[in-house]
Amino acid sequence: MNVRHINPGGLHRAGAFSQAVVVEHPTKTIWIGGQSDADAVSGFAGRTIGEQTVRTLRTIATVLEAEDATLANVVHWTVAIVEGNRADECLAAFRQVWDPADPPPAVTVHFVAGLGPDQVVQIGAVAVV
């Protein structure tokens, strides 16, 4: 079994975790830790849950591209939304990024008391390539 920890360039680096862990045996499975719309330079950019969701999905796409995968390879999402924000706005943002021709993955949504400063959504994913 081959296990690799990946941290694609341009994404925020925190010494306490990897952006994703790739396990190859017998197929490649990519476990992507909870992501936000923060980048390595400017921090959080979006103010609304919709803005943060779109940017977060683009961050996840960057991680997947580093492993020759796309959002279409995602089989499960885990979404944490700060209480007081609307899940339907997060879903609408997903629709802006997700290709409707791809089968939708499973999803788990949690409402939480808080995340990082200015952060209203965090998304993790599991992809199989």
Automatic annotation (TrEMBL):
Gene3D superfamilies for the chain: RutC-like
EC number(s) on file: 3.5.-.-
Pfam families to which the protein is assigned, alphabetical: Ribonuc_L-PSP (PF01042)
This protein's UniProt keywords: Hydrolase
Molecular function GO terms recorded: hydrolase activity
Listed name of the protein: RidA family protein
Source organism of this protein record: Actinoplanes subglobosus
